[in-house]
Structure formats: structure tokens, C-alpha cells
Amino acid sequence: MISKSINNLPSLQDDLTMSFSLMAGPVLDTSHSLLILSGANKMRDCYALSRMIFDHVLNLGYFGVKGEDAVKKALAHYHQKSFRDLDRKIEIKDLKFGIGLQGIDKAPISDKLKEALDYFTSNKGFELRSWTGENVFKKIELIRDKYGQEIGMMLIINLFFIYRHSSEIIHGTLFGGLFSRGMTKPENEQPNDENELEVFHKTRISFILMCTILLNYVMFEIINFHFPRDKESKELADLVKNFRITLFDE
To answer: Any transmembrane segments, and where (predicted)?
Structure first.
């Protein structure tokens, strides 16, 4: 249902439609990958994919709130980052590696590209990584103010269950490793054997799947706010309300 609605976005070549399409497509694709991994009980990988979905939906909502200004800023970020990719190098003490086009630093560039490069370069000459300048809490606040408390709460739920632990797992921290083994739970609740660990993984995967369902709903409702599809919106709301997950077989 969601996929069909996304494919039927207006064909207008406006900034908002373009940004919605570029965010929504990967959400659907990665959601499918998540379903495959969940069936294989790959909890850590499910967390990593759910974080990707969360960030895409969050940015889609941010585009919806900020409109053309945010899209133009994102395009400037893409423009200068693509140019930097033509000549990249890394140096750490005596370690050096790089690939680039010879003489690219002397090539003439447009005023638009120069402006983008200047904007995303710090006073010390380093590339600025963030394109929004807003943290995740501020983005959710902005999205809640525009699209309502229900949408904001669904994002908060994902922030609570997904964002923190997925970051630790993705960055390979000791906490992330121990969490994946159930070792961050109270001692009397920690898995004692592989069977209990499997139950723990399946339970956490069920949370991830429920959160992902909410994220897909949030994405659809934000798009529906700008390009109304009332019939599909009601059908999806009923599906979410009646959604159930079987955690595991006894």
C-alpha cells in the first residue's frame, strides 16, 4: 500500500516531491531487508537497518517542515561533497592515502559550488559534516509541531527503542557488544544459555519490527499531509492499530 502511494507521488519536478521520493524509496527497500534479517534472527543487523530507516524518515519529515530551503541546503551539501570526492586524501602521522583527479584544485568552479564549499567549511578549514545544523531532538520537535502529537510520539518511541542501542552496535562499543548478549539487563534477567539468548534476540527484534511499522506509518502520514490520500491513510491507520507480532513459539 505504501509503496504504491509513493510510486504515485505527483510528477511535478518540485523540490519537496524530489526529496520525499529520495527518502521514501530507501525506507521501503531497507524495510524489506529488515524483514529478511528478522527471519534469520539477526538482531544486531536489524538494529543497524532500523537506524537507517529512522534517519531517512526523520529527514523526510524535516524536508516537509522546512520545505524548499532545507532541500536547497541539502543539495548544496551534495554539490560540495561530490566535488570533494574528486580529490580525497587521509593523513594520520606517517599514514597517507588518497585518490583524486590531477589538477582538480586548479580547475575553475562555479560561484554556486564555491558558495557551497565555503558554507560547509569551518573557520579552521575542515569540512562540516552536518547539513542541517539541527540535532535529532530538534528535528522531532519541529516535526511534532507541524504534523501533530501522534507523529511526534511515534518518532519519540523510535528514538527511545532504536536510536541509542543502534548507535552503540554500529560504532562497535563494548556496551553494544554486551547489550547484544543481553548482558546490560539486571543480573537476574540476563540469558543463561543460548536458548534464552535466542528468546532475548527475538523479543528485541519484535520491538524493532513494531518501531519500523510506526516509521513507515509516519512517513506515509507526512507525505499524505502534503499530497492527500485519505482512503489509503484510513486503511493504513487500521492496519497499524490492529498490528500484532508473534514473538516466538513456546
So the answer is: 205-227
Q: By the 8 A CB rule, do 161 and 211 touch?
A: yes
Phi, psi of 33 (to 5 degrees): -60, -40
- Cα distances (angstroms) measured from residue 227 to each of 5, 20, 25, 70, 101: 10, 11, 16, 19, 43
Alpha-carbon radius of gyration of the chain: 21
Containing H/E element for 99? Answer: strand 95-100
What is 201-218 written as a DSSP string?
HHHHHHHHHHHHHHHHHH
Answer whether 53's CB lies under 8 Å from 46's CB: no
- The answer, yes or no, to whether residue 1 has pLDDT greater than 90, is no
DSSP 140-175: HHHHHHHH-HHHHHHHHHHIIIIIHHHHHHHTT-HH
Rounded Cα–Cα distance for residues 106 and 125 (Å): 18
Query: Do 60 and 20 touch, CB atoms closer than 8 A?
Result: yes
pTM: 0.87
Instruction: For residue 123, give the C-alpha cell.
Output: 573557520
Overall size of the chain counted in residues: 250
**Packing angle between helix 43-66 and helix 15-39, nearest 10 degrees?**
170
Best CA proximity match to 108, nearest among 131, 126, 83: 83
Are 23 and 59 a contacting pair, CB within 8 Å? yes
Q: What does the block give as the cell for 205?
A: 527484534
Exposed e or buried b per residue across 10-42, where buried means at least 16 C-beta atoms within 10 angstroms of its C-beta: eeeeebbbebbeebbeebbebbeebeebbeeeb
* 116-152: pLDDT as tens digits: 999 999 999 889 988 998 999 999 999 999 999 999 9
